[in-house]
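Predict the 3D structure for this chain.
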Amino acid sequence: MKNFIQKSAILILILGLSSCSVYHNDLADVQTAIDSNNRVRVETTENVVLELKELRREDGQLIGITRENSETAKLMAHRSLTQEGKFVKIPLRDEEISAIKLRNRKMSNVVSIGVPLIGVAGLVGITNPDFRPDVGY
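Done. Predicted structure below.
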């Protein structure tokens, strides 16, 4: 049983530490998003949500960077995407963006680490034969 708990805990930690992004509620402007060099969530005027690794401006053109196999790349496949290693560049127009939210690094780290730890603690507590929750009865 102890071996099962250890393997389960390791599995939960590995799965939980995968990238999870939490975004600020406040909206940012395009220049702030470019300067942040951080993940951004862009909502277009057509109500399409794009999760991008970063926003750049190259030769006056606004460019969104995302992984080539991401949901965003699949949504924007109808555009002329440019390959850059494992990433693709998506050309965007300033006027098609209705909202930009920046990644909240602090909360993203808390969620990525805290949730798996709570899961491991719960798993250990449930599988422990001496576990008796005090529910106030």
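DSSP finds four helices and seven strands in the chain.
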